[in-house]
Amino acid sequence: GGLTALEMQTRRFDKFLQLPGVRSLWNPFRAWHRRFTEKQLKSMGLLMDDCLNEYEPVVAEVLKKLPQEELIMREKRIKRAFDLSIKKTELHPDLQDYDVWRPYITSRIHAVQKRMAEERTYQTD
Fold first, then answer.
1. Residue 109, class by beta-carbon neighbours within 10 Å (0-12 exposed, 13-18 middle, 19+ buried)?
2. What is the pTM of this model?
3. DSSP sequence for 1-14
4. What's phi and psi for 55, nearest 5 deg?
5. Of 122, 109, 119, which Cα lies nearest the Cα of 6?
6. How many CB atoms lie within 10 A of CB 108?
7. What is the pLDDT of residues 18-57, one digit of tens each?
8. Which residues of 56-88 are buried (b: 16+ CB within 10 A; e: fewer)?
9. Tens digits of per-residue pLDDT, 90-112?
């Protein structure tokens, strides 16, 4: 099968990083961006996976398979972040001590992508 738009974009970006001098400029930016993103997510009480597009087919499929309590917690985090944003405030600092990078969707994406690719293969045969 063909590559998805994201896979093509990732390949182009990987080629870009191989250009002379690009990686030495990229790595400090990447580290800064990671710290900035982590601070922003913590201020809203979100996990990075909460920000994934639930209308993306692979993400939607993963969400269907998540345990009910994980879906409820995700929904509560998103609602709380929306409420904090509307009120132009942040989550109390005592509640910001957690790992925003804990994967609960991304850890399952590869398996779902593999299954979806297999299903497409069977449909075309």
1. middle
2. 0.76
3. -PPPHHHHHHHHHH
4. -95, -5
5. 109
6. 18
7. 888 888 888 899 899 999 999 999 999 999 999 999 999 9
8. eebbebbbeeeeeeeeeebeebbeebeebeeee
9. 999 999 999 999 999 999 998 99
